[in-house]
Amino acid sequence: MMGLANIELPKKVKYAPRKKKADGAFKMDLVGRAYADWLALSDTERTLTVQIDCVEGLRRNSKCILSLHFVRLFFQLYILIENQDQAHVKAALDAVETYCEGAFSDVFPVMLGDRGSEFLDFAKIETGLDGARRTRMFYCDPVKPSQKGACEKNHVELRKILPKGTDFDALTFDDVSEACSHVNSYPRPGQGATPIRLASLVLPANLLESLGVRIIPPDDVIMTPKLLGLQ
Asked: Domains in the chain: how many in total?
């Protein structure tokens, strides 16, 4: 694997206990994981940070799309999950860990997301299949999506194919893989290569193959709902 710095991560994971709110729900203590803490990381760690988010369909939909944005590559992975909750986010990341074939901590050394409830259990996100820490999770300040602006901006490209009002419950794994392939094969102004070509140089081949992401020739890229037969 080329171009990814290795960041040493602790082998054992210890987390502060969850705090219980008056209504009986649990909240996580995010001390040490705020945006200011992320800013205090080294330049290398910030550069290698992957921004995580969810793209939603209709309000009545249970399915959503988990997005993983590699800022330095302009590359964004999309994973269809059945419910927008902590369990399904963890399951998706566990699958990604398997696809990375031992390289998850190199590919995702640091992650940055908003404070949506699906991301707040950082222990689920950070703990790998072997029980060791696989990444470090940090959070944007409340109501500050601009702090992961690259991720948000790239969603504009996805929305060209899946505009607001799209029924995400009707989407399939193959639909999202196809959308991901076309979004990342779409040339960006000022870039010497498409995001998918950059990603193919540094990300595990099995990760891309397992998620059905492939290079689309420039002349075949479709950035409208027509790609998935939605219009």
From this structure: 1
